[in-house]
Amino acid sequence: MEAMDRRRFIGLLGSTPALAAWPLLAACQEGGRSAVAAQPAASTTATLPPADPLSHLLRRTRFATTQADLTRARELGLQGYLDEQLSVPSSLDLIYLEADARYPVTALPPPVNLAINVTPQQATQQLSERTLFLAAYSDAQLYELVVDFWTNHFNIENVTGELPLHKLYDDRQVIRAHALGTFGELLLASARSPAMLEYLDAVNNVASGPNENYARELMELHTLGVDGGYTEQDVREVARCFTGWAINGLTRVFEFQAANHDDGEKQVLGHVIPAGGGVTDGEKVLQILAEHPSTARFIATKLARRFVSDSPPDSLVTTLAGEFTRTRGDIPAVLRRLFSAEEFFAAADDKFRRPLEFVAHLLRNTRADRLGFDSASMLNVLSRMGQIPHRWFPPDGFPDRASHWMNTSVLLEYWNQAAELVENTDTLGRSVVTDAVNSSTDVDELVDVLASQFVQRPLRESDRQLLSMLARTALPAETAPTAEQAVLVAGLLIASPYFSLR
């Protein structure tokens, strides 16, 4: 039997009328990003059969979900699953020990990483690879998603100068240490992060010449939001409060330099900060911002956009902002409220997988052997898709709306990854193919088995029939279903909206 190569597979995607009717494919063929952006979210999802509530919860709280993950979640129940996922994993868990062994540079704190001559290039590469590895293989999937959320919220590019060396500390001691804590603690840790101090020029903020960069981004991107009610005078006053916040030249961690601090009286958002406060000036500002109503709404909006919809309902944002205020920024409490909201369960398939989510989902679903995991080559894939972890240069973090990602070039890369599986059976993982073929008596059943594995939900009947027809036509078999047919169906599922929508 003739194998299905990439050229034939891509041609099949582009030339089959029924496949072109799949919303994501049609959107791409109609002109890429502009065509997709013009369509409301519902237009890409209305004809997909609804996922059951638990399946929907898993698709939104994980980088990647397999049938085995769904089976375990059913055993735990919805609340039991959330309880497990909202717990911070131990650094001694096997997967984290394995990650440290694979990417040893990422485990080195300052100034050790400088003392043993770790290069910024090594730090940049290994942190990105470790991030992808854990996104795909850690069972603490919600934790990894929340880490990704806060990494983007407090974005620090990971290439320039000594930032890659400082970012190792920021990843472990700021983001991962506080991802499921309170927002106020996370905000303080970020303000003291050597990476943030360098990235937003806080190390150059001294009384004799205040630098306003960190003060501005602190209010615009980290807390209040651009319309959060602060003024240019507030920016100047906040900058004065943070004068003297610096990095120790030996330990390479936070140090307050009193000689460089403006110790006069300041006024921030109507609050008087008395003279003589020293380092507490900045700490008071962080507390004021963490407890501000605009911050509650800004964070609530971003969480709802990440986990619910590109345009989250105002009712949900209001609810989450209220919970944020009531719990003084307790992150797990806000997430629990989000994942129990009616608006959350009504938003199935309203989110498009960004490249990191797509690749992690692909690796986990194909049961790619993590012992042979080639993270460097997978980063090359993510580079072509436009999302290498920690390498977004502006301070606003990777975009979280489909309009940025759902374009011709990204979708073609997604299809190429599906074609890669079709072209190289070993990439798919023989166990997936073997299990599907061995448990199927005919091609129709083969489609159902693979849909259960890759999308964990029933297919629209017309799509089910289409996949069966293509498997029979493109790779005909006289008897039982074959491995070649299983690989083709798996590739088509991965290239479909069922796989790309969350």
Written account of the structure:
- The chain is an all-alpha fold and 502 residues long.
- Helices cover 59% and strands 2% of the residues.
- It is built from 30 helices and 4 strands.
- It has helices at residues 6-15, 17-20, 23-29, 33-37, 53-60, 67-85, 94-102, 112-115, 120-137, 141-153, 163-178, 183-191, 194-199, 213-222, 232-241, 280-290, 293-307, 314-326, 331-339, 342-345, 355-365, 375-385, 402-405, 408-423, 425-428, 430-438, 443-454, 461-474, 483-494, 497-500, and strands at 245-247, 254-256, 266-268, 271-273.
- The strands form 2 sheets. The chain has a two-stranded antiparallel ribbon with strand order 1-2. A two-stranded antiparallel ribbon has the order 3-4.
- A hairpin with a 2-residue loop joins strand 3 and strand 4.
- Helix 9 (120-137) packs across helix 21.
- The longest helix is centred in the first third of the chain and has 19 residues, at 67-85.
- The radius of gyration is 24 Å and the shape is elongated.
- The protein starts with 5 loop residues before the first helix and ends with a helix.
- The model is unreliable at 23-46 (pLDDT under 50).
